[in-house]
Design brief:
- The complex is a heterodimer of chains A (112) and B (112).
- Chain A has strands spanning 4-7, 10-13, 19-25, 31-38, 42-49, 56-57, 64-68, 74-78, 87-94, 102-103, 107-111.
- Chain A is mainly beta.
- In chain A, strands 2, 4, 5, 6, 9, 10 and 11 form a seven-stranded mixed beta sheet that branches.
- In chain A, a hairpin with a 7-residue loop joins strand 9 and strand 10.
- Chain B is mainly beta and 112 residues long.
- Chain B is 0% helix and 56% strand.
- In chain B, strands 2, 4, 5, 9, 10 and 11 form a six-stranded mixed beta sheet that branches.
- The chains are: A mainly beta (112), B mainly beta (112).
- Chains A and B meet through strand 5, strand 9 and strand 10 of A and strand 4, strand 5 and strand 9 of B.
Chain lengths: 112, 112
């Protein structure tokens, strides 16, 4: 039981490049989330998926897209990376929308 | 507009003593509060939570207190141990929806 896994662990991009961050959970959770963590800002919600087949915007969705591929997987895509997207990205999942969220280990992204 | 505030960025406590981490919030519609603990290069892990209908919840060395009139939340760790050294995030959930609003975190250092 690996919990929530994220790939890659670390990535360097040039401005304008695109990439997809992958997230998978093996806890049979219904809800999944993407957060970013920046110094002095705490964790901010980018997008979430309350259940398979649905996605909604969080606090800071601009510049990102998401796909809930199936119940296990929730990916985050940066179509044209910007230096302001340099951050640590965390994926999380929960059994239901009101349940405790469990986090993955994070992806460190550096955009030059 | 920071709805959940952790005004102390850091706290240093001697091993065996009590650690008290504080959190203030502005939205009276929050119905659930959580504390997460985060080690470097890892994702946040759930520590303890409290419903807005309670004023105290205890789990081993960890106790969370909620003062609704003051819109204040605190986490007590007794006795503190070196392994408790981490960043602690307070989070709150609005009554409607699935989002969590996180504070900016407090770095706790427990020294021998």
């Amino acid at each position: 039981n690996a919990g929530v896994t994220q790939t890659p662990k670390f990535q360097v991009l040039k401005t304008g490049q695109s990439m997809t961050l992958q997230c998978a959970q093996d806890m049979n959770h219904n809800s999944m989330y993407w957060y970013r963590q920046d110094p002095g800002m705490g964790l901010r919600l980018i997008y979430y998926s309350a259940s398979e087949g649905t996605t909604d915007k969080g606090e800071v969705p601009n510049g990102y897209n998401v796909s809930r591929l199936n119940k296990r997987e929730f990916s985050l895509r940066l179509e044209s990376a910007a230096p302001s997207q340099t951050s640590v990205y965390f994926c999380a999942s929960s059994r239901g929308g009101k349940e405790t969220q469990y986090f993955g280990p994070g992806t460190r992204l550096l955009v030059l | 507009d920071q709805q959940v505030k952790q005004n102390s960025p850091s706290l240093s406590v001697q091993e065996g003593r009590i650690s008290i981490l504080n959190c203030d919030y502005t939205n009276s519609m929050f119905d659930y509060f959580l504390w997460y603990k985060k080690y470097p290069a890892e994702g946040p892990t759930f520590l303890i939570s409290i419903s807005s209908i309670k004023d105290k919840n205890e789990d081993g060395r960890f106790t969370v207190f909620l003062n609704k009139s003051a819109k204040h939340l605190s986490l007590h760790i007794v006795p503190s141990q070196p392994g408790d050294s981490a960043v602690y995030f307070c989070a709150a959930r609005p009554g409607i929806g699935v989002k969590l609003i996180f504070g900016t975190g407090t770095r706790l250092q427990v020294f021998p």
